[in-house]
Design goal:
Elements: E1 2-8, H1 21-30, E2 34-39, E3 44-49, H2 54-69, E4 75-79, H3 80-88, H4 97-100, E5 104-109, H5 115-122, E6 130-134, E7 137-141, H6 153-160, E8 164-168, H7 169-179
Antiparallel strand pairs: 1-3, 1-4, 2-3, 5-7, 5-8, 6-7
Amino acid sequence: MNKYVSLLRGINVSGQKIIKMEDLRSLYESLGLKNVVTYIQSGNVIFESPTAKTTTLKEKIEKNIEARYHFNVPVEIRTAREIEDILHNSPFGHIDIDKEGTTFLVTFLSSIPSATLVLGIQALLQASEKLAVRGQEVYLHCPNGYGKSKLTNNFLEQKLKVKATTLNWKTVSKLYELTK
């Protein structure tokens, strides 16, 4: 069995695309996924599956969410090992979760963005902000708060031309704990 974390983009935000977590767990279980655990209302799901291809799992989950709820929800999936690697290989060094857990963030991308597009974003950073792209993840540091930054999820999707979902470091850390 392989352990995975799936991240659903844009559910239960501002009264849109409402999915109750117990219903989401039930949907995942109906797909044959095992040991399904949800974390907070934004659609973070830890599960096990014998399937080794994340693209197969992603397509299956997206298709079944659309069939059941009649709206499209982009899903990003990472293995438990990938989540561990993200936490242990921060380009910003050690991050104190208690002090900085909400100002450091990870944006999970649907594909690796072009280097040219990444360079274009680097030029738009505020002086105090940091951004690093490693594979399909964007590491962000927004010391003045994510809400005050232009590096929003929508902004990154538009500029990098990929689907994305962003989580703060505290949430990524908790998801990792739940994979153990």
